[in-house]
Amino acid sequence: MRFLAGFFTAIVLIAGAGYLYFKMGFVPVATASAPMPFEAMLAKMGLSARLAKDAPGKAPIAANDSTYIAGAHVYRKNCAVCHGLPDQDKSAIAKGMYPEPPQLFVSKVADDPPGETYWKAANGIRLTGMPGFKGSLSETEMWQVSLMLANADKLPAGATEVLKRPLQPANW
Ligand code: HEC
């Protein structure tokens, strides 16, 4: 009996402390704030568990030069403002986000299986700023951009030429 009473009191206290942490404005809400305790760990754990369950294994389209070139166009239009272009400065949008969007031509995105990138592009990553494109890009376009990224270290000239153009024209 005493044990149970103690147990429930502890639960109420923990829930109350959690509530006050939010209610009294201690939760980091600005993009420049430090993360909440366990925020990054829990978010990573949830994402990788879901990817292991859901990410498709095999691409339904061929990985060839025309796929990479089409993928480069999709990327420029939909991803580059956050994820950057080879040898170009980060955009102001990318700099101000939390979590920061990884610069995909700097980080080793080519090591990620295309099915994983496809899942992220289709569904987005909740509460990070990473949009889900399921409603706006076709399946083919999402696979094109995923296959292009998976082969980012060996793209044909036709694709690198598209990615090298400046993100925004100088005279906007
Ligand atoms: C508005 C900004 C924004 C746009 C546009 C955007 N992303 Fe993201 N993306 C993010 C952010 C922020 C993250 C980091 C999420 C995290 O920390 O879990 C991310 C993460 C990712 C990741 C995981 C990278 C890694 O190394 O873990 C991939 C892959 C990705 N995005 C692909 C894309 C593709 C493909 C597009 C275009 C079709 C795209 N993103 C468009 C903001 C964006």
Concise structural overview:
By secondary structure, this protein is mainly α. It has helices at 2-23, 39-54, 65-78, 80-83, 92-95, 114-123, 139-150, 157-164. It has a domain at 48-164: Cytochrome c-like domain (Cytochrome Bc1 Complex, Chain D, domain 2).
Strands, total number: 0
Within CATH, the superfamily of the domain at 48-164 carries the name: Cytochrome c-like domain
Morphology call: elongated
Bound small molecules, deduplicated? heme C
Question: What does this entry look like structurally?
Answer:
The protein has 172 residues and is mainly α. The chain has a domain at 48-164: Orthogonal Bundle (Cytochrome Bc1 Complex, Chain D, domain 2), CATH 1.10.760.10. It has 8 helices and no strands. It has helices at residues 2-23, 39-54, 65-78, 80-83, 92-95, 114-123, 139-150, 157-164. The N and C termini lie far apart (72 Å). The structure holds heme C (HEC). The site of heme C has 21 residues, from helix 4 and helix 6. Residues 78-79, 81-83, 97, 99, 101-102, 107, 109, 117, 120-121, 125, 128-131, 133, 145 line the site of heme C.
